[in-house]
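Bug #2210: token dump truncated for DUF2975 domain-containing protein?
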Amino acid sequence: MTNVVHIPPLATPLEPRRRRAIRRRSAILATVMLWTLALTLCATALLITAALFYRGEMLSFGPGGLWIGHGPDPALGRISLATLTFPQRLAGVLAIAFLTAPVLGILHFARRLFQLYAQGVVFTPANARLIKCMAACLAAYAFAPFCANRAILLAGLTSDPIWFHADEILALVFAALAYVVADVMEFGHEIESDRDGFI
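Reproduced locally. Full output below:
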């Protein structure tokens, strides 16, 4: 006769349905962000290649930047890319890089954020850092047209003298909002950590 009583191990609680749904949707969004990032990279590479080497009539440069599907039109200020010198083409490539880099950054950090959500990682310093990185990219997006415009002007061309539009203002507003949300998340995590460590 033994006094040892075998207690069956507790069953592992199932993950709540709502949390499973959030993780599943986050995984889908991470994949969407990955494909969007890849397509944007391809489009950027295509634009850069065209800006450097294209000599046809389907691209022209004028007020507002690069015109796709529109040939040169002196009355509207559009000129053929074939008339540009190589340094001017390089300035165009630099302008494209200024304009697309913040978008690529936003997509990259959003993909990483949704990957964390898909793993069940929420309201951690890692999440807050990624949101702050997205906020920085949004702020960079607001000033990207100015940098692109300066690059074009230094090459002896004119693009868009009025570079600060409503979407740049909105980008700055959303950058500030995202940064504050990330700060609140970090502060909330610190409070939670202090409470867990209090004896």
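Output looks complete on our side. Residues 18-193 form one domain. Marking as cannot-reproduce; reopen if the truncation happens again.
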